[in-house]
Write a structure and sequence with these properties.
Helix content: 10-25%
Largest sheet: 7 strands, mixed
Strand order of the largest sheet: 1-2-3-7-6-5-4
Shape: globular
CATH topology of the largest domain: BirA Bifunctional Protein, domain 2
Number of strands: 12
Radius of gyration: 18 Å
CATH class of the largest domain: Alpha Beta
């Protein structure tokens, strides 16, 4: 994997897009920034990271072996690969919060933002943005945020953490295909936060309900049992899990 290190840029995902404009044959490439000025997360949120304490990077994956209807296979692959990498650093109680946040001890340590590039009905490339809290200690007004350091009490070498993550991502990409969809989704569901546990969910209008996560569909929708007779499927913007 090609590795590009930059000092301060607006967004590693945006930087990857600019590289792709300059080189349509861009190979598997990682762009890691010392500081992101406009890092983005899911649902239009921002990702704030203290300079020099965390990892903010994007990986460009050319021609992933998935069709547009099964883009979630890539999301599941990235989430499980990142989780596997973090397990090697002995973070406690690692889980994936749907769709692809990484939690340790019920606190968010990493977020993933994937932008797929479509052309002629195919996924011709994917830009995978990752924000990982590594050595940051303070998270003002973010009570659910944590870092590798706060959950383990240790300090970590950023380059070593990145090396392990990129190795796991490359392994995941090698296994990414429609034929492996059952194994990919099974691995994802095995590490899914609060699966088969009664939980509280919130609609966009603020209304709450109690349900239980049963499964995730191949399209990435959350299958929730709302009562003994009713189950419902939810897309990303249709419901959020309270924890």
């Amino acid at each position: 994997m090609h590795l590009i290190k930059v000092s301060a840029i607006n967004s590693t995902n945006s930087f990857a897009r600019e590289l792709l404009k300059e080189n349509s044959q861009l190979p598997l490439t990682c762009i890691v920034a010392k500081k992101q000025l406009q890092g983005r997360g899911q649902r239009g949120t921002s990702w704030d990271a203290e300079e020099g304490k965390n990892l903010t990077f994007s990986v460009f994956l050319p021609r992933p072996k998935i069709n547009p209807a099964h883009q979630f296979l890539l999301s599941a692959t990235v989430a499980t690969s990142l989780l596997t990498a973090l397990k090697s650093f002995l973070l406690p109680r690692l889980k994936i919060k749907w769709p692809n946040d990484i939690l340790s001890a019920n606190q968010k340590v990493a977020g993933i933002l994937i932008e797929n590039i479509l052309a002629e009905g195919k996924v011709v490339g994917s830009i995978i943005g990752v924000g990982l809290n590594v050595n940051q200690k303070n998270f003002q007004n973010l009570p659910q945020a944590a870092s590798m350091s706060t959950v383990t009490g240790q300090e970590f070498e950023l380059d070593e953490v990145l090396k392990v993550i990129l190795k796991e991502l490359e392994s995941g990409f090698a296994e990414l295909s429609e034929e492996n969809s059952e194994a990919i989704l099974s691995a994802y569901k095995n590490d899914l936060f609060r699966r088969l546990i009664p939980s509280t969910f919130k609609y966009p209008d603020g209304q709450l309900f109690t349900g239980m996560i049963l499964d995730v569909t191949p399209a990435g929708k959350l299958l929730v049992q709302k009562d003994e007779e009713e189950t419902a499927e939810f897309d990303l913007k249709e419901v959020s899990l309270c924890y």
